[in-house]
Each structure stands twice: as C-alpha cells, then as structure tokens.
Amino acid sequence: MDGTALATLGAALAAVLAGIGSAIGVGLGGQASAGAVSENPELSGSCLVLQLLPGTQGIYGLLIAFVMASKAGLLGGGDVGVALSVAEGWHYIFAGLPIALGGLLSAIYQGKVAVSAINMLTKKPDQAGKGILMAIMVETYAVLSLLISFLLVNGI
Which of 43, 46, 92, 123 is most buried, taking the most CB atoms under 10 A from its CB? Predict the structure, then answer.
C-alpha cells in the first residue's frame, strides 16, 4: 500500500468512524425524543436540541477528512500529483485517529446523556438547560479530539 492510499484510509477513518458515532448518538436521542414528545408535545424544541448534539462529531470528522484529503492532494488541493511516502501516509492515519475514535465514542456517550436528559425533561420540563449542559460536557472531548487531529494534520 502506498502513501496516498494510506492517507485516503486516514481521511476515510476520520469521517466514517465519527459519522457512525453521530448516527448512533442521534438515533438514541431520536428514540427517546419520540417517546417524550408523544407524551408532551411542548418538549419538542428541547428534545430536538438534545437529539442533534451528538451529530456534531460527524461534522468534525468530515472536516478533518476534507483537510486531510486536500492537504494530501486527493481533492485537487495541496501537492497534486506528488506521491506520498508510506511514512507520510501513516502520519495521515495517525493524525485522523483522535477525531475518528474520539468522535465515535463521544457521540455515542453524548447520545446516552441526551437520552437521560430527555427522560429528565418528561418529569421536570423546566430543567432543559441543565440537561443540555450535561450533554454539552461530553462534547468537550470531541472538540479536543478535533483540535489534536487538526494540529497533527497541519504538522505533516
């Protein structure tokens, strides 16, 4: 496998794994939201925010994948036509791993926190802000993963 193929794999891992985590997290939030809103339609706005929060990790993974693909010359940017060494290809894989794995796991766990917050809202609808804050706390680790992947990609 040459360096360009490895760089492509690194970009794909960043997008796909973070996207899978977001799909799972948003799905969990959607299931809980459907139940909560069926009992109390006034909760729809707060439930929607909680459901959507885990979706950001997929966006972060996609952002890093675009940066990696552009920098590696896969999208017409960067050094187009210049072959990457195997070492450079591995660097891209390792640069994408923080957001790939951090995005995957944080989105799933953010979805679980969102489900708990949605369940809390069915009992105490006035506590939406606290529930959203609890879910946002998990987002911190996705942002840190995004930051380290971005720094590593730009260090190549």
Answer: 92
